[in-house]
Amino acid sequence: MTEAERRAPRADAARNRDQLLAVATRVFVSAGDEPSMRAIAREAGVGIATLYRHFPTRESLVDAVYWDQVGRLTTGARELLGRLAPAAAMRRWMDLFGDWIATKNGMLDTLLAMIESGEIAHAQTRTELLAAITTILDAGRAAGDLRSDVTAEDIAAALIGIFTVAPRPAHEAKAGRLLNLLMDGLRRVPPG
Fold first, then answer.
1. Does residue 98 lie within any of the structural domains?
2. Phi/psi of residue 56, nearest 5 degrees
3. Which domain holds residue 70?
4. What is the CATH number of the domain that holds 105?
5. Is residue 181, in this structure, part of any structural domain at all?
6. Per-residue confidence of the chain (192 residues) as pLDDT tens digits?
7. Is 31 part of a structural domain of the chain?
8. Which of 19, 24, 47, 68 has most Cβ atoms within 10 angstroms of its Cβ?
């Protein structure tokens, strides 16, 4: 057995980790307060030892969920553009952004402490998210679908505002209406 094979997680261990990550994300979205590690393990249908084997601390779990969501946003921009027109990709990406914001509900205290201590670089996240928005904006401009006078920072600020006044999942319908209004404002109006 090579050293790489010894270090690589077994397929079932990787699946278990992915399952725990998915369950933790769901629990964080629906939680009003930070759920206990025991509650997350119970929801995942595993023992607490299994959860701690994959995520030895609350911070390691929050970190994994946070970066998983950021990864979904950054790769999601390219994937959405691969199968949707730029304006439709932007609207769908806004939903992914809302999912990311909602995930923070049940991990906010830990997340803020990690940002404060420097364990999570907020500036890096911002850069990655703005790059994802820019990718879609550039494609929309090239296609003639999206306005050329809007910046990624404008869209990020609007999204934060929308999800502040219409947090998900409690205000899903209101958030959807506001996102549709934002998209109407982003579409390029043909001259004439």
1. yes
2. -65, -20
3. 58-186
4. 1.10.357.10
5. yes
6. 455 544 555 677 778 888 899 999 999 888 777 888 999 999 998 889 999 999 999 999 999 999 998 998 999 999 999 999 999 999 999 999 998 888 887 888 888 888 888 888 878 889 999 999 999 999 999 999 999 999 999 999 999 999 989 987 778 899 999 999 999 999 987 665
7. no
8. 24
84-97: string of b/e by CB count within 10 Å (b at 16+)? bebbbbbbbbbebb
Number of domains observed in the structure of the chain: 1
Residue 38 in domain:
no
Question: Residue 72, CB half-sphere, CA atoms under 13 Å: how many?
Answer: 20
d(CA 53, CA 20): 11
Between helix 152-165 and helix 122-143 the angle, nearest 10°, is 110
Beta bridge partners of 146: 187
pTM equals 0.81
